[in-house]
Amino acid sequence: MALPTGQCDLHLRLRALALAFLVLTLPYHSSVEASWWMLGLPNSIPGANEVTPMNYKEVCKTMHFLNERQKELCVINESILMSVGMGAKLGIDECQHQFRMSRWNCTTNRDTSMIFGNVLAISSREKAFIYAVSAAGVAYAITKSCSRGDMNECNCDYRMRERRQPKGNWQWGGCSDDFQYGEKFSRDFVDSKENAEDVEGLVNLHNNEAGRRTVRSRMLRVCKCHGMSGSCSLKVCWRKLPPFRTVGDALLARFEGASHVKLIERKRKRVKKLRPVHKDMKPPNRTELVFLEESPDYCERNDTLGVMGTRGRQCNRTSMGMDGCRLLCCGRGYQTKVREVEEKCQCRFVWCCSVECEKCRYKREEHICN
Ligand SMILES: *[C@@H]1O[C@H](CO)[C@@H](O)[C@H](O)[C@H]1NC(C)=O
Ligand SMILES: *[C@@H]1O[C@H](CO)[C@@H](O)[C@H](O)[C@H]1NC(C)=O
Ligand SMILES: *[C@@H]1O[C@H](CO)[C@@H](O)[C@H](O)[C@H]1NC(C)=O
Ligand SMILES: *[C@@H]1O[C@H](CO)[C@@H](O)[C@H](O)[C@H]1NC(C)=O
Ligand SMILES: *[C@@H]1O[C@H](CO)[C@@H](O)[C@H](O)[C@H]1NC(C)=O
């Protein structure tokens, strides 16, 4: 059976990450605000040797951007560091993909330990998205690693077979992704940073959970036919993680419908809850994203906020969306540049078996925000 492409992709990235770890050298000098997201950009961790089954416990201990609980989890197995790094990278890459056409494009800063810059100082929708997508990323990457057999603690999910027999002519079999373990790990690892006693913590925990539930609700059932050729007399099915892009798309929709909330405290019952700022809105359920503060407009460079602004960004002259020149350039206007590009063209098939192309030069208009 061929590897599903998603898994293949992950394998490649994992290898890249492993290579990246090889060039790191210890020790790492920390800063206060640093976070486990650093693991998603291993090249930016100055220091750290090759991570091996022999030394990974030491490596875990020297990663000052992990808190105590995270260090404990780090030593469960030598593959944890890499899986969490994969998860962080999945989240960061997905964020950059989903926001590539927006004023804030999920810029990461490799030169400081604050990967998303000060943007996280505001409890905005954008922050909600970052938390959700990266908590989802960790649950996702750990689950993949379980299915690959990288850890003693988890495996493929074989419990499917013992549950209720499915209706119809198919049965559970093969390796079902065990999302339950990945989800639990993500709760333990990612959520350990948060304090459920303060409002920021409650919001972050809510968004982390929304991210994980988004993955869970999009798990797929895939099947394979057995039996005499083409007869499909026996169908074997297993549960599989969706492509991570599906999770990003769903979270973007939740970003757009996110709830502006505030903290409600009932002192006597000692309950703390997040409730919509606007009284006529329904309380958010566990899958929705929540935020505390309106976002800045991200139009102008603001180093205090770590916002790059949209000057110099490429916009689309005909789009009415956020990537359209009017919205993206915040009304400052834009300049049009003509660039010459070379592409293959007039390709034809030559018997047998090659494709011959000519090189064509095109002029392409590019619009750049003032
Ligand atoms: C990590 O998991 C692998 C695969 O199950 C196992 O071979 C290895 O011994 C584990 N390492 C530790 C430290 O438990
Ligand atoms: C949560 O709320 C959203 C939007 O109101 C709704 O679309 C969704 O079905 C709800 N999910 C659950 C599990 O209730
Ligand atoms: C940056 O943003 C902060 C917070 O919104 C604001 O107080 C400050 O004036 C801004 N700085 C600049 C240079 O625009
Ligand atoms: C985001 O936009 C800035 C310009 O504001 C650009 O330099 C950067 O490459 C973009 N980042 C991504 C990930 O697209
Ligand atoms: C610009 O936007 C239009 C309309 O949304 C779209 O059809 C076109 O493909 C976009 N062009 C580029 C270069 O993205």
TrEMBL record:
It comes from Cloeon dipterum. Its main location: secreted. The keyword Membrane does not apply. One of its GO terms (cellular component) is extracellular space. This is Protein Wnt. The keyword Lipoprotein applies. Keywords: Developmental protein, Disulfide bond, Extracellular matrix, Lipoprotein, Secreted, Signal, Wnt signaling pathway. Ligand for members of the frizzled family of seven transmembrane receptors. One of its GO terms (biological process) is muscle organ development. GO terms for molecular function: cytokine activity; frizzled binding. PROSITE patterns: WNT1. Residues 1-34 form the signal peptide. Coiled coil: none annotated. Belongs to the Wnt family. It is found in: Secreted, Extracellular space, Extracellular matrix.
